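Sequence only, no structure available. Ideas?
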Amino acid sequence: MKRLGSAAVRQQGDGSGDAPRSGSLRWWRRGLRLEIAGMATAALLTAIPSFAAGPAWRVIGGNAKRGPALIVAYGCAACHTVPGVRGADANVGPPLTRIGDRTYIAGMLRNSPANLVRWIRQPQAVIPGNAMPDMGVTEVDARDIAAYLYTLR
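Reply:
I predicted one. Tokens follow.
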């Protein structure tokens, strides 16, 4: 027995730094729970895809390699900042940086391949009177541009 202040405290363990003998099962169970929790956390983290792993969406029929040239050809670079596209550093429209991680397109459309292609092709049909003009983008070219934009994460 040791005396701490006015209370008597029973000393447990052998002084080696190990857990007290009388509660060793309790300590073992606590350690096991922590180990299981750590393994579960590690399993969850490896199951979640990395944002840097690739495009957020797969655009069927889209060729992301053609996207930068098409962005320049259709004049998108005159209004938008688009990473990876030479000369696309304008401030008229919103920057398309990390568009692959965004929830909405144009603040109204849920971000999905079909909606992005539709927006690229016919922004005035989607939101009449908005600042983005219809540029006559074909379906195939819109898919390629969308495929490229989804690589921006």
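Helices lie at 24-47, 67-73, 113-121, 123-126, 139-149.
Hope that gets you unstuck.
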